[in-house]
Amino acid sequence: MAESTDLEQLMNSFKKFAIHGDTKATGKEMNGKNWAKLCKDCKIIDGKNVTGTDVDIVFTKVKAKTSRVITYEEFQRALEELAPKRFKGQSKEEALTSVYKLIEGKEPTNVGVTKIAKTAAVDRLTDTTKYTGSHKERFDESGKGRGKGGREELVEETGYVGSYKNAGTYEEKTKAK
Questions:
Q1: E-assigned strands of the chain?
Q2: Is 94 helix (H, G, I), strand (E, B) or coil?
Q3: Rounded alpha-carbon distances, angstroms, from residue 60 to 9, 39, 52, 69, 160
Q4: Three-class secondary structure of residue 127 per DSSP
């Protein structure tokens, strides 16, 4: 019972890494870049026993000759090849179980992704309350842009003076009499 849930978690991790960074990916096949990312993020690559080169060699070994991706079955074969190398003191089965435990439930990380710079200079330049002149008219009190109304002088041809507050109420007043 426990083994089937472990394999389900392994399959879920495979799918998550397979679709990472590729909008067209279905999650059934994994490319070499995502295979290397899985090995790095799940700490299969330790820099001593297993290196990035080892991971690439195993990927090339298990995939079909003309293919550029591996399926879930080929993924499991690749893990079987890497496991004894990563965990040298253990038997093949124990090493494979240890590698599965490293991968289960993991997702791709976004370490090193560029963050938005929030500095005082950017805040000062984008604070709409400090705008003056014609730029001030492009935003309302909350700082939200007014769109076309803030950029161009829109003329209403209603017959009323521009700032007349009771525009459109003449007919209501005459009907009441």
A1: 29-31, 69-71
A2: helix
A3: 25, 15, 13, 9, 78
A4: coil
**Residue 47: HSE in the Cβ half-sphere, 13 Å Cα cutoff:** 1
SS3 of 123, please?
Answer: helix
In angstroms, the CA 6 to CA 55 distance is 23
Cα distance between residue 56 and residue 50, in whole Å: 11
Handedness of CA 40, 54, 19, 77 (dihedral sign): negative
Please give the Cα distance from 175 to 177 (Å, whole number): 5
Written as one letter, the residue type at 63 is K
The chain-wide mean pLDDT, for the chain, equals 82
The pLDDT tens digits of the residues spanning 127-149 come to 778 778 777 777 777 777 777 76
Amino acid at 9: Q
Residue 80's H or E segment, with its range, is helix 72-86
Integer Cα distance of 80 and 96 in angstroms: 6
Torsion region of 107: left, alpha or beta (phi above 0 gives left; psi -120 to 50 gives alpha)? beta
- More confident: 111 or 102: 102
Residues 6 or more apart whose CB falls under 8 angstroms from that of 89 comprise none
Q: Which two tokens stand for residue 49?
A: 């026993």
pTM of the model: 0.61
